[in-house]
Design brief:
This is Glycoside hydrolase family 13 protein. GO terms for molecular function: hydrolase activity. It is a single chain. 26% of the residues lie in helices and 15% in strands. The strands form four sheets. Strands 10-9-8-4-3-2-12-11 form an eight-stranded parallel beta sheet. It has a six-stranded antiparallel beta sheet with strand order 1-13-14-15-20-17. It is an alpha/beta fold. A hairpin with a 5-residue loop joins strand 6 (163-165) and strand 7 (171-173). The chain contains 15 helices and 20 strands. The longest helix has 17 residues, at 304-320. The chain is globular.
Length: 537
């Protein structure tokens, strides 16, 4: 057997090393004012649910003033709340209520780009070429006889050129939608602005930031051509001149100094895509950010050997810089894993098993709202509701289906308690058959996905071997994984479609589905995971 050690950093930073963090997609979590759109009042009303679920922190997606070209990731004002979601007082009250319940609050910060309605960009358009206002963004002259061609061949993540031409003939860079112009991080004023934004929210009591496109901001000198098409598919797999440039790390080091200047262990979490695990680990060096999302784990197909490989690599590379690993199965940008794992009963079985696997691994885990209910991707939304700008690149890549609001109650018709009584529509329509997936229905069912998550999170919190620490692989049959945490906990997962017999590692604590024990052996159900009080070995 092989032991993988995770070395804590020298500084006493503990809560974030093994925290379970719940992602709230604010538009779709709970509607407090009856307009069919989730808001901060709705989140406040459901904090008790999150506390009872057993998570440690909540990550809120952007709630800042925005034209909503990319559902809030096009920010017009970084120091306020969009009226769609409430007011600044609602954010302050939410932070205070969460803290009273022992929950930490992490908010999004979006530093790669602003909205085109941000005062800075509006001023840049008015000021014209060569002005100080334009220096805050990336404006360039075009190519061709009269500048009619984009400055280079960069493509938008959402499809099409990453450049838009303005009336005076210059072009501006937007690696996402045209309504999201990229900032020029070579300009000192941009650095000063975001340092002030961080301090504004830290002063209001937030416990950290999830940094959107943390691999962005810095572009290669001279903005060289990529020389290839399909650049969105290259991100995270190959080196590109607009992402994961070495200069981003100085930004993150400066932000770490700001975070460390506040009491209470405030953290930074990188949404970062990098071509190698080693480059991803650069974002969580001791003087940079605290965590980086593990998208390699999220993207791993349902195969025991592949999962073992990505777990080994994740733990190894994080340990090189003294950071914890992070584990995530879904988020607001990818299809829900019940569907990715095959959908239907098979997908649900695998999702139950994956939950126990993820929560048993060393480090920190992220739960995307609704995965604790076993929600599938909604694949048949009517065309008039599909507004995700990513669909411009590829209709199948649209993210609307993972953002359908949560069902809370089991009575009546959709939207099942997402909105106050008397409101019958949500911003995205909810399937009628989600009644049985609602929070209310699942709380009545001891075998439900929600009951499994609550039990697993309670055990994780109580068990001394779970969370931060070491992982030791145990021998197990082909198609299965088995590992020990410390001396008294073991996890075994069968990722095959067949029953598999193996030696029981101890006494059963929790199962995602149907093991059969016989003496010293156990028969593991297909696509299932089990937790055990391990025998000392």
């Amino acid at each position: 057997m092989t032991e993988l050690a995770v070395q804590p950093s020298a500084v006493s930073t503990r809560w974030w090393r093994d925290a379970v963090i719940y992602q709230v997609y604010v538009r779709s979590f709970a509607d407090g004012n009856g307009d069919g759109i989730g808001d901060l009042l709705g989140v406040r009303s459901r904090l008790g649910y999150l506390s009872d679920l057993g998570v440690d922190a909540i990550w809120l997606t952007p709630f800042y003033p925005s034209p909503m070209a990319d559902f809030g990731y096009d920010v017009a004002d970084y120091r306020d709340v969009d009226p769609l979601f409430g007011a600044l007082a609602d954010a302050q009250a939410l932070i205070a209520d969460a803290h009273r319940l022992g929950l930490r609050i992490i908010v999004d910060v979006v530093p790669n780009h602003t909205s085109d309605r941000h005062p800075w960009f509006e001023a840049a358009l008015k000021a014209g070429p060569g002005s100080p206002e334009r220096e805050r963004y990336i404006f360039r002259e075009g190519k061709g006889a009269s500048g009619e061609l984009p400055p280079n061949d960069w493509e938008s993540i959402f499809g099409g050129p990453a450049w838009t031409r303005v009336e005076d003939g210059q072009w501006y860079l937007h690696l996402f939608a045209p309504e999201q112009p990229d900032l020029n991080w070579e300009h000192p004023e941009v650095h000063e602005e975001f340092a002030d934004v961080l301090r504004f929210w830290l002063d209001l009591g937030v416990d950290g930031f999830r940094i959107d496109v943390a691999h962005g901001m810095v572009k290669a000198p001279g903005l060289p051509d990529v020389g290839a098409r399909g650049q969105a598919e290259m991100i995270g797999a190959q080196v590109v001149p607009f992402f994961d440039q070495d200069g981003v790390h100085e930004i993150h080091r400066a932000w770490r100094r700001i975070l460390d200047s506040y009491e209470g262990e405030r953290i930074g979490v990188a949404e970062a895509w990098a071509p190698t695990p080693e480059r991803l680990a650069n974002y969580v060096r001791p003087d940079e950010l605290h965590q980086a999302f593990n998208f390699h784990f999220l993207k791993t197909p349902w195969d025991a050997a592949l999962f073992k490989e990505v777990i080994d690599e994740s733990v190894r590379t994080a340990a090189l810089v003294g950071a914890p690993s992070t584990w995530v199965l879904s988020n607001h940008d990818v299809k829900r894993h019940v569907t990715r794992y095959g959908g239907g009963e098979r997908g649900l079985r695998r999702a139950r098993a994956a939950a126990l696997l993820m929560l048993a691994l060393p480090g920190s885990a992220y739960i995307y709202q609704g995965e604790e209910l076993g929600l599938p991707e909604v694949l048949d939304l009517p065309e008039q509701y599909l507004q995700d700008p990513q669909r411009l690149r590829d209709p199948d890549s649209g993210r609307d289906g993972c953002r359908v609001p949560l069902p809370w109650t089991a009575a009546g018709e959709p939207p099942y308690g997402f909105t106050p009584p008397g409101v019958y529509e949500s911003w995205l329509p909810m399937p009628a058959d989600w009644r049985d997936l609602s929070v209310e229905a699942q709380l009545r069912d001891g075998a439900s996905m929600l009951s499994l998550y609550r039990a697993a999170l309670a055990l994780r919190r109580e068990h001394p071997e779970l969370g931060d620490g070491t992982l030791t692989w145990l021998d197990s049959p082909p198609g299965t994984l088995a590992f020990r945490r410390g001396d008294s906990f073991a996890c075994v997962i069968n990722m095959t479609r067949e029953w598999v017999e193996t030696e029981a590692p101890g006494d059963l604590l929790l199962a995602s589905g149907g093991p059969e024990t016989s003496g010293e052996n156990v028969r593991l159900a297909p696509d299932s995971a089990t937790w055990w009080t391990a025998r000392n070995v």
